[in-house]
Every structure is written in structure tokens, then in C-alpha cells.
Write a structure and sequence with these properties.
heterodimer, A: mainly alpha, MetI-like fold, elongated, disordered C terminus, B: alpha/beta, six-stranded mixed β-sheet, 19 helices
């Protein structure tokens, strides 16, 4: 019975069920199908816990940035330029303008993680909303959403984003919008397909027979059923958004240069790539790689716990 | 003559429970042996053990000996086992449509099986097998499983199981979901093939009447043991074991359950007037209902009978105000349902309770029993009626509220469905084949419960079924549907003397138990 060794992390809909299943395998009823909850993480996979810890640590470091470093990430110090890692007072060194690299990395994490999270939330909300409208609305709306999604999926993301940046100017908001505009499509398509398949189930018919309104059926039966595959996509969207932010900033289309983000740090480090100051590139790049890896491992765990989206 | 199948001291255990406990059984070539028992008695586990088809996740342990033509299946290696599967033993499942792969054609299924055993030309063998099962190869070869009717799919599954002329055919509840006419056709084929080709058949069923009509021998299974075994006529006429007597007694009941002494007067609760409904599928249009006038009066019980595809379920959807007819009117409590506003129509739906054949699928898999019932109670929950009370009313322990429907037995699930249907305090209950697929004892309990509810609360019942015995037991009046029209309408007591060919066909195909006292 697969569900006995899983931890329910988010019983989003099932108020009547035990909220934490880790210590109560007896509560899982024989014959119950896995996938009652939106998110299930395999408890016995230490790797999953390790990456979760890494992510928590990164988030904590970003939150506590002012406590972890005395430096202002924007302040230049002409007495300490181009210091290598391990220099006294500057554990990760400084760049050519005398910015403390640790401070910039920590404050950059704030921007990058924030953008990733907000963009992913907006992406998922927009995707579910549009997918829901396509599934429940009139046929022309379904067609419209599908065609718009097709067009966006076939356009190179950078072109769309460049256009947006040109129109709106460089800002954090633009980056969030750019990520949302270019990545809601898979969420919407999955949400639409799930809702349509849920709608054909007998229990949805039974709910209508009880006299429930469409809205009640949607909230009580359709959405909870469609949520697990959407949740696993959502986890990937966070990683995708962080990566997109870095890409955009690297090309000078993202976060304004005066605000540190991991992508911006890479942009500034471009010039040093061949001059031996490897650490200006290595640290922000490592942060991005570690974060994306961790998020994706977590997302795969969610996906395999559910096993329907992939 | 040596037996085609010989099971000796078979024990099948799942973690924590021994399901089959020392079962022995033999099937001789050319004989049809029925393994009969209620749900949960271990029938299917026994059948699956013969080919070792258990789901590895369930950690089933099988001990004993299963000899097929002298070879012990349980001792075979994988490769040798594959030789046995398909070639020497054919297996047909209950849900034929689900046992076929919807993405490939029927022909591909045959090709696959024949090639796996290098047995010759797939087309030729497949066509012959289909022919034996009463199908034209030309018609179904290129079809995909979902394009077939239930009866066709079951025949294809049988043809597929017998394409390599196995010595043994295992038919696991193959006709449970079929209407009596189709069931009779399918089982006649199985029997004829057994006799002609000297094939042994192990027929798994929960229906004693089916066993009596189509099997040579009956083995009655209870609690994992065979309690009685012998020629079917003898066992059914003079059952010796207490359990068999109980089963036979339940299966013989075909007189009406006690009806309410007086039926309240009043106009029809629900009525359809010249209702037509057309189903538009891929490439074909079916007139599911073609001018049906139907009415239920307060406190009465009407059986809607007919074969699959006669429009029974479509009528249910229309009566429950879920599906809009293409023409005609649906009138509930004197009001035209589809002339109302959405809100009022939803309110009307609460006036009729709906019960489905597949109770489990009608519950949200995330819900517990308590939540299922509580949802139906809605605002009434605060007015004193509570979940526990409702569960008690349908004969369930209120403590079951915390369990999930998937962990309940078929009969219990149907009671939960009934509790939900009754929650809103409806005046009419619409039940769509609620006892199909239940064994005779569970079926009898559900029927008795319905009769009791009707007596106590004056509930009107529309009972859709293809089983005439059940119709006689629960209803005052039978409405026979054929091809979307009402073929005949008559009191159930007059069913035996019905004239209409459709009713006669149903009667002739329904296996009957001798009702005389032994």
C-alpha cells in the first residue's frame, strides 16, 4: 500500500481527513487510492529532504541578508576592489567596483527567489483560470485560449520578452509579467484537460443530481481533482521562473542593473570570465544551479508521488 | 479421462488474511464448472491463481498445486508460464471493454496473441475464433474496443481468449454487466464450444441461476472453502450445505416484497411527455429516447426494464432533470422542468434521489462516507437530520462515516449511495441498476431496504433493471423499453403472460430457478 510511507504535506481540500499522515499509517484505509491530496512527498527519500533543507536555507539566508553581512550591496568601496575570496572582511571577495560579493549574492537571492515565487504563483493562477474558462466556457472561448497558447508556445520566449521590456521598461514587474506571459500555457492546457476529464466522472454527475450549482461542483469536486497534476507543474514553474529571471537579467532585459539579482551578477561578471576572476561568475552561477536543481528534485518528487502529470 | 484443470489444496493469502483456504477443484475436458459465491468469497483470486495473474503490489502468496494437463502452474518459470497463458489457458475478464487496449484495433489484439505463440496466420485464426463467438471478422477486425457494444466487446474478449484453442477457458464474471438476452447468447456460445471442442470451462459467477442454466457442475464457495459441489441440477434442487440453502432461497424469491397498504393519492410526481433525446457520438447518431410518456405517482414503485441500449439510462438522466430532452416535456410536481430558471431546477433536483449502478464511481474519491452524506444534507444538516441518523436508516453503522467508500463492500457502498440519495428528503428515488453486480444476498438486503423505505416513508421508486426477477420483487408496475420506445407497460404480476416480443425475449433469456419446494 503506497500511501503508508508518504507524508501528506498539503491536505488542501480534505478538511475531514487527518492533516498529517506521517505517524498514523493506520488511518490510511485499505484500498484507498493514492493521490487524495494535492501534494505528497515520499518520506523515505532522504534526497528529497536534503534538497528541501537546501531551499529552506537559501530562503532563510535571503530573508536574513542584513544580519548575515554588514555591507550594503550597492555601496562601492574603492579601498577594496577586486579582492579574491577569503580576503579578511570579504569572505567571497569583491568586484572591481568594490562591491562585497557575499552581500550582493544574499541581496540578489532576495530578488531572484521573490521573482521566482511571485512569477510562479501568477503563472499558475493565470493558467488555472484560463484553463478553467476554456473547459467551462463557451466553445469560442476554448478555441481562443487554445490558439493564443499555440501562438505563444511557437514564439521564441526572448522575442516576446524583449517586446514587453521595450514597451514597459526594465523593472521587477516586467520580469514577473514576462515570465507569466510566456509560461502559463502548459498550466492552462493541463488544467483544461484535467477539468474536462473530471467533468465526465460519475461523481460529478451525482453532485449535480444533488442540486449543487456549477460553482459548487467546480470548487468541491472538479478543482480538488485537477489539483495534483497542477501542483506538480507549479513546482517546476518556480524553477523555470528563477531561471528565466537570470536569463533576462543576463541579457540586460530583466531586473534593472542597480538592483542585485543572480542574473545581474552574471551580467556584471561577463567581463571577468577570461581574466581569471572566476569567482565573480562561479558563485552566482552556483546559486542558480543549486536552486534550480533543488526545486526540480522537489517537483519530481511531487510528480512521482502523484504519477499522473508525467 | 484426466482433468484439464485440477486444483489441489489451494491456499491464497494476502497480507493479514487468508482468502482462499484449502480449495480443491477439478474440471474435466468438455465440462462447464461454475464456481459460485458471494463477493469477497475468493472466486476471482482462485481464478487468477490459475494463471498467476496477481498484482505483485498486493503481495499475494499462493500455495498448493494447480495442475493444467498434469503440469503444476505454480512451479513453472516465467517462460514456461507464458507458454501456458493464452495457448493452454484462455482468460476472459468481467470488464471486457477495460481488458482490451483502447488504442489498438481488435485485429491487433489477435495478431499480438497469435504472434506471441507463433501459432500461425493471425487473420485466419482470429476470424475463425470470432466466427465461433458469433461475430463477423470483417465487421470488428478494424474497430477499436470503445466502438463496440458491451455484448460485442465480451464476445471479442472471449474470441481472444479462445483463439489458440486452449484446453481450459476461465470466464471470470463475463456476463455480469450484460443484459439477459446478450448474456444468454454469450453463455450459449461458451457452452457450445465446450461441448464441440472438448474444452474445459471454469465459469466464475455470483449468480446461481446462471450457474444452474449453463454449468454442468457447481462448486459453491464460501469463506475461501468449497462448501458444496456437484451436478448443478442436483445442487440447486436440493442444496445440502446451510450456506447453499441460503443462497438458493434468496435466488428463488421472486414474489413482491411487502408494499405499502395504501398508496397516497395525487398527480404524478415526475412525468415525461413525448420525450425525445438524441445522442450524438462520433460518426453516429442514436435516438436514445424516441417519444416516451412515463409517469411516477406518489408511493408507487415502477420498474423500467429493457436490454442494454434500450434507453433506460437516458431516461434516468432525463427524469433526474440532468439531461435536457431534444423534444417533449419533463414535468416535476406540475412544473415544466426545462422552462424553469437554473436555480429553481436545482431545487427540483433535490426532490428526487439518484442512485447509480457503479456506486463507488459516484463518490468523490477524496471524500469519506460521512462527507459524501453530509454534502447531500447541505442546509438540512443544521435542522436535526444528521449523517449518523441517515447511515442508521440504511442499515449501516454510524461509525462508518470515517471510512472511505473504496474500503467498503459492494452492498455497503450501495447503501451509502442510498443514504446520500435520501438526505434531501426526496419523494421519489430513481435507481439505475443499483443491484446489478451485487451477489444475491447483498442484492436481497438492498431490495428489502428499499421496500422498507417505501413502506415507512411513502417514497416512490423508479427502479431501472434488466433483471426481471428483481423487477418482480420490488415493483408494482413494469415499463419495458426497446430501442428508445415503450414497448409495453404492465403490472409485474402479469409479466409471465406478456405478449410483446421484447418482453418475451427478456423472459426467455432470464435464467430461472425452479421455485418448487424440494
Amino acid at each position: 500500500m503506497p500511501s503508508t510511507d508518504r507524508l501528506t504535506t498539503s491536505p488542501t481540500t480534505d478538511t475531514g481527513a487527518p492533516a498529517s499522515g506521517d505517524g498514523a499509517p493506520g488511518k490510511t484505509v485499505a484500498g484507498a487510492r493514492p493521490g487524495f491530496y494535492a501534494l505528497r512527498l515520499p518520506v523515505r527519500r532522504p534526497g528529497v529532504w536534503a534538497v528541501a533543507a537546501v531551499l529552506a536555507l537559501l530562503a532563510l539566508a535571503a530573508l536574513c541578508a542584513p544580519l548575515l553581512t554588514p555591507y550594503d550591496p550597492l555601496a562601492t568601496n574603492t579601498d577594496a576592489t577586486g579582492l579574491p575570496p577569503g580576503s579578511p572582511g570579504h569572505p567571497l571577495g569583491t568586484d572591481l567596483l568594490g562591491h562585497d560579493l557575499l552581500a550582493r549574492l544574499l541581496y540578489g537571492a532576495r530578488t531572484s527567489l521573490l521573482v521566482g515565487l511571485i512569477a510562479a504563483v501568477i503563472t499558475v493562477l493565470a493558467g488555472v483560470l484560463l484553463g478553467g474558462l476554456a473547459a467551462a466556457g463557451p466553445r469560442w472561448l476554448d478555441g481562443l485560449v487554445a490558439r493564443v497558447a499555440d501562438v505563444l508556445l511557437s514564439l521564441p520566449m526572448l522575442i516576446v520578452v524583449t517586446a514587453l521590456a521595450a514597451l514597459l521598461g526594465r523593472s521587477l514587474g516586467t520580469v514577473v509579467l514576462a515570465v507569466a506571459v510566456t509560461s502559463w500555457m502548459p498550466v492552462a492546457l493541463v488544467a483544461r484537460a484535467e477539468l474536462i476529464s473530471q467533468r465526465e466522472r460519475l461523481y460529478v454527475r451525482a453532485a449535480h443530481a444533488l442540486g449543487l450549482s456549477r460553482g459548487q461542483v467546480l470548487v468541491r469536486h472538479l478543482l480538488p481533482g485537477a489539483l495534483p497534476p497542477i501542483a506538480s507543474i507549479a513546482a517546476f514553474e518556480v524553477g523555470h521562473a528563477i531561471l528565466t529571471e537570470s536569463t533576462l537579467s543576463f541579457f540586460g532585459l530583466g531586473i534593472p542593473p542597480n538592483r542585485p539579482s543572480w542574473g545581474n551578477l552574471l551580467t556584471e561578471a561577463q567581463a571577468h570570465l577570461l581574466t581569471g576572476e572566476w569567482y565573480t561568475v562561479a558563485f552566482p552561477a552556483a546559486c542558480i544551479v543549486v536552486t534550480i536543481l533543488a526545486v526540480n528534485v522537489l517537483a519530481s518528487a511531487v510528480a512521482s508521488g502523484e504519477g499522473r502529470a508525467w | 479421462m484426466s482433468d484439464a484443470l485440477k486444483i489441489e489444496d489451494l491456499t491464497v493469502a494476502v497480507p493479514g488474511r487468508t482468502v482462499v483456504d484449502g480449495l480443491s477443484l477439478a474440471v474435466a475436458p468438455g465440462r462447464v464448472v461454475a464456481l459460485v459465491g458471494p463477493s469477497g468469497s475468493g472466486k476471482s483470486l482462485t481464478a487468477r491463481s490459475v494463471l498467476r495473474l496477481h498484482d505483485p503490489e498486493h503481495r499475494v502468496t499462493v500455495t498448493g498445486r494447480i495442475l493444467i494437463g498434469g503440469t503444476d502452474v505454480l512451479a513453472l518459470g516465467r517462460r514456461a508460464l507464458r507458454e501456458v497463458r493464452g495457448r493452454r489457458v484462455g482468460y476472459a475478464f468481467q470488464d471486457a471493454a477495460a481488458s482490451l487496449n483502447p488504442t489498438v484495433t481488435v485485429g491487433r489484439h489477435f495478431t499480438e496473441t497469435v504472434r506471441a505463440h507463433d501459432a500461425g496466420d493471425p487473420r485466419e485464426l482470429g476470424a475463425a475464433a470470432l466466427q465461433r463467438c458469433g461475430l463477423e471478422a470483417g465487421q470488428v477486425w478494424d474497430a477499436r474496443p470503445y466502438e463496440l457494444s458491451g455484448g460485442q466487446a465480451q464476445r471479442v474478449a472471449l474470441a481472444l481468449a479462445t483463439v489458440l484453442e486452449p484446453d481450459l477457458l476461465i470466464a471470470d464474471e463475463v456476463t455480469t454487466a450484460l443484459d439477459p438476452v446478450t448474456q444468454a447468447e454469450v453463455l450459449d456460445t461458451v457452452r457450445a464450444q465446450a461441448a464441440e471442442r472438448g474444452r474445459a470451462v471454469l465459469l466464475i459467477t455470483h449468480d446461481l441461476a446462471v450457474a444452474g442454466r449453463w454449468a454442468d457442475e457447481v462448486a459453491v464457495l464460501s469463506g475461501g472453502r468449497i462448501v458444496e459441489q456437484g451436478p448443478s441440477a442436483e445442487v440447486l434442487a436440493a442444496p445440502r450445505a446451510a450456506f447453499t440453502r441460503e443462497l438458493v432461497a434468496a435466488a428463488r424469491l421472486d414474489t413482491a416484497l411487502e408494499a405499502p397498504a395504501e398508496v397516497p393519492d395525487g398527480g404524478p410526481l415526475l412525468e415525461t411527455r413525448d420525450v425525445r433525446r438524441v445522442l450524438r457520438g462520433k460518426g453516429r447518431v442514436t435516438r436514445a429516447l424516441d417519444g416516451v410518456d412515463f409517469a411516477v405517482r406518489p408511493g408507487e414503485s415502477v420498474a423500467v426494464v429493457g436490454r442494454s441500449g434500450s434507453g433506460k439510462s437516458t431516461l434516468v438522466g432525463v427524469l433526474a432533470a440532468l439531461d435536457r430532452p431534444d423534444a417533449g416535456q419533463v414535468v416535476a410536481a406540475g412544473r415544466d422542468v426545462w422552462g424553469l430558471r437554473d436555480r429553481e431546477r436545482r431545487e427540483l433536483r433535490r426532490g428526487s434521489g439518484l442512485v447509480f449502478q457503479d456506486a463507488l464511481a459516484s463518490f468523490d474519491p477524496r471524500y469519506t462516507v460521512g462527507k459524501v452524506v453530509a454534502e447531500a444534507l447541505g442546509r438540512r444538516a443544521s435542522k436535526g437530520t444528521d449523517v449518523g441518523e441517515l447511515l442508521e436508516r440504511v442499515g449501516l453503522d454510524p461509525a462508518m462515516a470515517d471510512r472511505r467508500p473504496a474500503s467498503l463492500s459492494g452492498g455497503e457502498r450501495q447503501r451509502v449511495a442510498l443514504a446520500r440519495a435520501l438526505a434531501a428528503g426526496p419523494r421519489v428515488l430513481i435507481a439505475d441498476e443499483p443491484t446489478t453486480g451485487l451477489d444475491v444476498l447483498a442484492q436481497e438486503r438492498v431490495l428489502a431496504l428499499l421496500a422498507e423505505l417505501r413502506r415507512d416513508t411513502g417514497l416512490a421508486i423508479v427502479f431501472v433493471t434488466h433483471d426481471l426477477r428483481v423487477a418482480r420483487r420490488i415493483a408494482d408496475r413494469a415499463v419495458v423499453l426497446a430501442a428508445g420506445r415503450i414497448a409495453e407497460e404492465l403490472p409485474v404480476t402479469a409479466l409471465a403472460g406478456a405478449r410483446h416480443p421484447e418482453t418475451r425475449a427478456l423472459l426467455a433469456a432470464t435464467p430461472a430457478m425452479a421455485t418448487g419446494v424440494q
